[in-house]
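Exercise: predict the fold of this chain.
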Amino acid sequence: MLIGVPKEIKANENRVAVTPAGVAEFRKRNHEVYVQASAGEGSGFSDEEYRNAGATILPTIEEVYAKAEMIIKVKEPIEQEYGLIKSHHLLFTYFHFASSETLTRAMIDSKSVCLAYETVEKADRSLPLLIPMSEVAGRMAIQQGAKYLEKQFKGRGVLLGGVPGVKPANVLILGGGIVGTHAAFMAAGLGAHVTIMDISLPRLRYLAEIMPRNVQTVMSNEYNIREAIKVSDLIVGAVLIPGAKAPHLITRDMLKLMRPGTVLVDVAVDQGGCIETCKPTTHENPTYIIDDIIHYCVANMPGAVPYTSTVALTNATLPYAIQLADKGWKQACKDNNELKLGLNVIKGDVVYKGVADAFGLPLVDVNTHLS
């Protein structure tokens, strides 16, 4: 198969979808790999390393798309790429369709096959290609939240871990999944007082067993959230409904209950956000303030630590990408139900319920395209 690795052009996105080690694995199986010049530089990988691994370096993104059958990316295509995507393309990347009708309709119009990292799902309901970036984002949420609590950023001026004689900060984490778990460990490690909320009692029992003593678990409901935000210094939104828009757990009116300088970090922003006042921001302009509450809503948080993120992501995606390259997308998805669940849009048809529901689009049975 002809595999294309374009340079990410989303603002401040420094990750790359395939490492030189990944290129070498594809070449061992006689696949051709075309990498755009400087695609890996942001993650610390030079063009020379890609050449040595067997890739062909192409100077422009247009040439990469023109040559490739399968495009492997990190982030969803943006407007400049829409016209480059053709009906013969298989795109393997994060899409988060439910947060963008424009992107969804553009991919429908392209007649391409869109296989989304975030909805590849194992039998135990875990999301193997979302987990590594969720781990990074959960830890970064605390790192960034601690920074923006500083007074120079209009925060409350609170040190997350406190000092002897001064209470530590109160951190509230909404969602006990991968993001929430890693955020809780990070905040607890810095010495904060942490409350993690979830709607699953079995999950809360599990978290109560594994978390340090400065983490408490609380059932998530509107009453408990409203009470907790009154005394929280840092609030992390870590809710995920695979392939669908995140619910608003914090509404606009709730901001009035918070203390001025409270920091909100909405990790769910790429799925629409679980905070009503959330809107996507970039690493260049990461925050904004509403009602004296700081909002940090960067949609590609792991892009700020690209080496760690790239290696972690490709460790997870490469085995699936190899299956797609070796067998073609149809056979690979027939043989592996995890990949089949990653199919979101095929040849103009929406085949993933969460995406169809988000925009009132007709849902087509994925199996009609696999026969």
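Check your answer against the key: The first helix runs from residue 20 to 28.
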